[in-house]
Structure formats: C-alpha cells, structure tokens
Specification:
5 strands; five-stranded parallel β-sheet; Helicase, Ruva Protein, domain 3; 14 helices; Rossmann fold; 2 domains; alpha/beta
C-alpha cells in the first residue's frame, strides 16, 4: 500500500518472525549469544522467558538459522501435547518413520537409536520448543526423561524452552524440581530500551530498502515509546498503522499525531498510555534539582547534569547500526 510512496521494497514492520529483521541489540543479542554458547558447551536444558510480544519466536528462529551443520535441529511450535504425541512430534522432526500406535516405550527406543546415530555422525541434536508455557506437567516430565538419553561424555539431546513468564511459575511446582535443577542456562527477554528504539526503527527501515531522510520524527518516537513500552510487537503494529496514516494524508514523515491515530485503531494498546516518559522523568528531576538548589538544600555543583547528551547517545547507536547495515548490503 505505502511501500512505493516511501520508497521501500517490503513491509519493514511485519509481525511475522522474519529473521532478516532480527535486531542485534541489547537483550536480544545477549540472549542469542547465551544460547549459542550454552549449546556449543552441550548443556542439556536451556530456558528463555519473556512477556508477550518481546520477540521469543523470532529469537528461536534466529537461533535455528544461526546453528551450523554440526547441529540437527528439531522444532515444535505448539508443544501443548500429551506425552505420546510430544514424542511422536519429536520423532517426526528427527526423520523417524513410525508405523503408528507405538507405545511410549517404543517411541523412546526409536528416538534414542536415532540420537545415537546422529551423535556417531558428529552432530548435536537440539530440540526447540516455542510457547513452552503451554506444556503440561506430564509433558515436562517427558522432556526430563529425554535428557536422560546420553553417552558417557555428553547429552544426546539438548532442549531449549521459549515461553512466557507462566513457564517459570509452572517450573516452580515441587513435582518438577528435578527438571528445574537441570536447567543450567536461563535468560529473560525484556523490551527495547529508550536508547535502542530509534536504532530499531532505522534498522528495519534500512532492511526494507528505505534510503530517504528521517522518517519517524522525534515527537513520533517519543509517543511510540510511551505507548508501546518498548515491546517489539507493539512497536511494529503501531509503526505499520502510522505509516498508513501518513500515506493516506500524503505526508512523507511520521509525527505524534500518526502514532496516536494508530493507537486509537489498536485495541490491545488503548488505555496503556504511560505518563512517565524518559523526557518527563529527566525533566522532573531537573525541576526538583532547581527547587532544591533554590532552597539551599544542595549545592549546584554536586547536582547531576541532565543535558541533551541523553539524546546524543541515541544518535550514536543509530549511526553505528546504519553503518553496519549499509556495509552488509554492499
């Protein structure tokens, strides 16, 4: 709709987990590095949790695409299955031909044999489970038993759980304490911070081949952060709708009014306005400091200096990301 108007070749703010748009910044880059290190070390159980919309599925896909040929990856996007069905799904991912109606014992035996074959070929097998908070207690116990499959030197199956915070509450159950003890690496994804938001927008726009002047004006970015709280999925939804709003009015830049129009059209965000924006917080601190100085309570020279340097740091992040993408595209 608006792609040719803004000079783009694809939607920069799609909510599908397109790994080309994975933003290597902050917690997301750190989480990817933790996962890669843990898997190369052969750790049996790894857990990543995060609120809805923080990018767990995209991180999972990015991890699978990043792993080299030394890894055999199995992926189960919806693991809310009974133990037998969960084992059958894993068997199918590993290329095991099933005759049908196999017992749980037979499924374990077939999976173990396949894992031994992969290990003999020098491959590490990784099972990635998205939406792990939906796994039943019986399913989690089944996964624990799978991690018992090992040689004298290493685990035959490495398991990575991606789930919402409900997963942590589920794992805190006394009946799952054995599984909880086997989780050697865990990471919690968080939202994009204030300094990273501008860089996130620039990164996605460059990936969509946008080469024009600044598209999202400072007032739009501030409003975007205030309403999305830095959650990637909400950022994408609002930016997409704001671009439609700007396009509909023939405007080449996005402003606060366009973000607010997007918010009004997005049910899951309505009523979530945040009063304490970064600009408000630093402004409030400045006012309190001025009043304190006026009252003679604290000397001026020991007060922290809040200057435009806060925003200069954002520009530095944008510049570094812009240079990275341009070099990548050359």
């Amino acid at each position: 709709m608006y792609l040719s108007f803004f000079g783009m070749n694809e939607n920069p703010f799609t909510i599908t987990p397109d790994t080309d748009f994975f933003f290597s910044y902050g917690k997301h880059l750190e989480a990817l590095n933790v996962l890669l290190v843990a898997l190369h070390l052969g750790e049996g159980f790894i857990k990543v949790t995060g609120e809805v919309g923080t990018g767990k599925t995209l991180l999972c896909r990015k991890l699978m695409n990043t792993l080299d040929d030394k890894f055999e990856v199995a992926y189960i996007p919806n693991p809310s299955l009974k133990p037998d069905a969960l084992l059958m799904a894993l068997a199918e991912e590993l290329g095991i031909v099933l005759e049908g109606n196999e017992s749980q014992h037979k499924l374990f035996k077939c999976i173990n044999q396949r894992l031994i074959e992969l290990n003999a070929a020098g491959k590490h097998c990784v099972l990635c489970l998205d939406e792990a908070q939906t796994i039943t207690e019986e399913g989690l116990e089944c996964l624990r038993l799978l991690t018992n499959l090992e040689t004298e030197k290493q685990k035959l199956l490495l398991i990575v759980l991606f789930g919402q915070p409900e997963l942590d509450r589920q794992l805190s159950m006394p009946s799952l304490r054995q599984l909880r003890q086997r989780i050697t690496f865990s990471y919690q994804l968080s939202a994009i911070d204030w300094k990273g938001l501008n860089a996130y927008l620039v990164y996605r726009l460059l990936k969509a081949n946008y080469r024009g002047d600044r598209l999202f004006m400072p007032d739009a970015v501030e409003e975007l952060y205030r309403t999305s709280q830095g959650i990637p999925r909400l950022i994408n939804i609002l930016c997409h709708k704001a671009l439609i709003a700007a396009y509909g009015r023939g405007q080449k830049t996005v402003h606060r009014k366009h973000i607010r129009m997007a918010v009004k059209d997005t049910e899951c965000i309505q009523g979530r306005y945040l009063f304490f924006t970064p600009r408000f917080v630093y402004g409030a601190i400045g006012v309190i400091g001025a009043i304190t100085v006026a009252l003679g309570v604290v000397r001026y020279d020991i007060l922290p200096k809040f200057t435009p340097a806060l925003y200069a740091k954002t520009d530095q992040v944008i510049a570094s990301k812009t240079s990275y993408i341009r070099e990548e595209n050359q």
